## 1
Amino acid sequence: MIGKDRPGIVADVSEALARLGANLTDSTMTRLRGHFTWTLVCSGPGAAEVDAALGPLVAGGQLLATVREVGPEVEAAAAGEPHLMSVHGADRLGIVAAVTRVLAENGGNITDLTTRLTGPLYVLVAEVDLPAGTADAVAKRLAEVAGGLDVEVTLRRTEMDVL
Amino acid sequence: MTDPFNGWTPEALGDQGEVLPVVTAPDAVLSRPGPEVDPSDPKVVRLAADLLATMRVSPGCVGLAAPQVGVSAQVFVVDVTGHPKAASVHGAFALCNAKVVEATRWRPGREGCMSVPDLTGDVKRAARVVVEAVLPGTAEPVRLTTDAFEARALQHEIDHCAGLLFLDRVAGAHALHQRKVYL
């Protein structure tokens, strides 16, 4: 779902889904430059039925819904070592592409990511699983790439306290 | 509470200081580690007075470091007096060449920064620290033990002096928050 933000979108959408018998599972909602955005997974009815149920909500043209069927849930692959990468600097084309390519080339898998542009400042925070023992080499390569882009990068091991 | 500053107050700087413009990210000075300073250097004393003057006129400002006024140096000021999250409070003070020598009781908390005006971030900081530093205009080392919000402010300012922003320490991809509402 994406559209002009207003109070009540989540309530309206989830109510329409509940009435249809669609069970809302994982979802994430935020505002991107003021646009309401919500990506959600629900189970139960087919895509066409969901699309039809959301019809009245998108009729005004202020909200856009894209409904697709997805495959069954897959077991998460064996995780590497969780790390957190922070990048910030003057906005320019290609920052995300360059730093995430370094992660990809080293087998790093991004599990969560946020980017924000505020004024001239660009900030990226990514959670990434790195193959065991690769963090130092990845950090070194990231520093080289960040230097070339004139941005700051830090790569830290994510702390996890299991209680 | 014993006074770690032995009676030192900002009046000892002998200078009202001048309000300086605050620089914002992505200014390169904010990401450069500042060199140690000679605390007895009149220029350092003046810088401390300017930082205090600038902090005092900035609403809600509880700390300001030299890189934030465009000077790469290990000097900062802190004043958490009256802040609801403060426990120990040492009033307004300035420190040179400060180092965290003990840090315990790590707690998450949301931080903002005058140099990153549009974002806040959740950052884990020690709620109890021991900091060693030198007061500007003196040669005497001080050892300051503090906690809660004053401890957080000290770690934030010491980070500035090392060329680090809270953006380098946010706790996760969902730990960054926008202050400005784009509507």
Note: The mean pLDDT of chain A is 94.
## 2
Amino acid sequence: MKSTYKLSSRVRLDEDDDGVSGVLFDTHTAAISTCNETALVILKSLKKGSDVDSLARLVAKTFEVNEKDAKLDIVSLLRDLTTLEFVCERE
Amino acid sequence: MNENNLSVALTGFGGLDNPEPGLAVARSLRAGWNDPLEIEALCYDTWNTGAWMPKIADRIHLVVPIAKGDDAVLARLKEIHAKHPFQALIPCLDLEVPAISRLSRRLDRMGVKTLLPAPEDAIAVSKANLPNFCYANGMRTPRTLHVRDLEDVPLYAERFGFPLFVKGTVAGAKKVNNATQAAYAAAELNAKWGGGVLLQEAIDGEEYVVGMVARADESCLALSPMRKLGVNKRGKGVVGAIIDNPALRKEALRILAKLHWRGPLELEFVQSERDGRFYLLEVNCRFPSWIFLTQFAGANLPGLFLNEVLGTNKRLQKKGKVGTAFVRDVQEVAISIKDHKDLKRFGTIKAPESQKRRAKKGPLTVAVTGVSAFELTQPGLGVAQALHYVPEVGQVFAFAYGAYDTGLQRHDIFDAGFQIPPDDESDAALLDRLEDIQKNNGLDIIIPNLDGEINRFQNIERDLKKLNIDLLIPSKKAFKAIRKDILFAPKSQQHWGGFELTPSKIVKSRKDVRAAWDQFGSPLMLKGQSFGATMAYSLRQAEDVWDLYQEDDQKLIIAQPVIYGEEFGMGVVCDRNHNVTESLTIKKLLMCEQGKTWGAVSMQLPELQKSLSAFLKHIGWVGPADAEFIRDAVSDQYYLIEINPRLPAWNGFGAMQGNDLTREIIKITSKSSIVSKSNNEEMLFLRAAEELPTYASSLALFANRGEKHNG
């Protein structure tokens, strides 16, 4: 069964006016991560919840990149976000 | 007073660069009360600069120090209340709370409401008593020891291990890394507060604070947790953001339940990196100085408090918007000397009106550097303020080195902010950045305001000229001539008519320290070549200070005898023929602990100015300079302390009172025929802290993008 990932309620995603960058804000600690265009697309999807394969397809389509490479980057990002408790994983 | 207006009396308008909370509480009430409100500012002396800021107090009163006893304090409050009745009193200093609490019933009979803890509850959580309180109530707090005899400090400090905090019994804290630093810090703090010092283990982790208001029944009315995002070298939170951390909230409420508290308070925590738990550092029995942030966030704690105290039943929001942030900058005003004297003579005055600033309309775009009050108040803030009085200027840009440069939030004086490369990047990178800014936004003149960056701008001056960007800065030769080791070298000309150079010895070794001690005696002033000035009262202390400078990688220092007397600052601008074309002299009346000017009056010292002009001509100076002098209290001889290669940080004062060094720079660089106005000697310069709103996300976006546009 695929795991789905969702942004934790403790983080808030603020999009910049230009719509291609943003800021991930941790409401518990005020820690801030700035997001480039690719990260923003992924994080917006994670707001609703998504799985690795869906995210990889989305990134590959949006940025015209290889889906396999996109998947590797997404897995790495999700690992970091999980460590920070910014995403929750559900089976 | 309008009889229909509510009136509140507040204390705590002093503190300078470590501001007392009264000004922030007043700002919060002004911004958030939304009904007519009058504020009586209660001050212990005429130099509580916060009370003089525009649109804060309706009246300023001198009151009796707490040390004079409860009866004397109450008598003065009664006297003020008889002429200017107030309905509530909010003490904003820790030492006042037990005293005002003792007086609360008598105040209530007068019609003045307070909401404060019982005196014994406030004393139970004082700095010296907090460790015992935490132990008795099962609260986590760092290991702390109260050392009354300073001779024991090195021994106990070694036992604690380093790093370690040395704290005053009332206020102040210094982080130290060895016994030498601990002893020095202990001497300083004990001299100020008495009672010995507290040694406290340093727990690695992020600092959090919680502002709270407790009701009369000791329940929590509202709380506002904040994380310190930017902490300066003195440990003060200068940038912070509202958070919503359930574990922190739970801990704060648990502690509140044990405190039996009424009224405002602040809890300070560190979250340990080791175990993730919150350790209580301090309990402050009043509003914190960052409390204006709660107004920015929409949950105004002073407003909620006043509503509770008076039972006015306003519907006020209690939960602040998470991510709302503040930065602490400065505000400067010029007030009439007469008002200042009248407060001293009569004890009560009506607060002065605020000054209006003209709108900029001219064609020139000017950028300034040195736009932060994060550590010290940098001169660019005053320069930018002064530029608003120059009609030829249309836009003013802030050139910042980081998102925490506090002036970036000054929408009133900067039209835009741009990040420029720091000094560890190449000159080419700086030039590219400036060219890019000019291409996209326009740029005519740059005014550099930090000593350490003059060299970089000298390196690219010609290239900037090719881009039609003007500077007015000294040559490398002239700049070298004011370097401390050159200026105060034994072979330099010592006598300049109106002033002499301070007798000095260049110190490159411990042996030189001893020789300087033998030559100049006690106390001895030791100055770093690049930064720092420390007094030593014994040879042992002087050698300890030498070690501290070595740790800071300053291999050469200047030793001078301490000269006692009044201090003066002279700001000048030299044209390209090395002639002083504009000057402004001040007598420094109020200085912060960092030695910076927070209060001053302008003066005419023609002989001194003539001598300085001769000196600057001699070394071929171009551009602004800030010369600092001291007048020996016994001989009246003026001694030169140092010359800084830029406008003084108090430069905004010149513009406010009609004598404008900044305008002179614009005149020379733009080759225009601006006419300067005459000097008005009747004004007093004052500076106070000011919290400005922003968002944590905005700070991050600036760090990412490197620019922001206001308006």
Note: Residues 67-83 of chain A form the longest helix (17 residues).
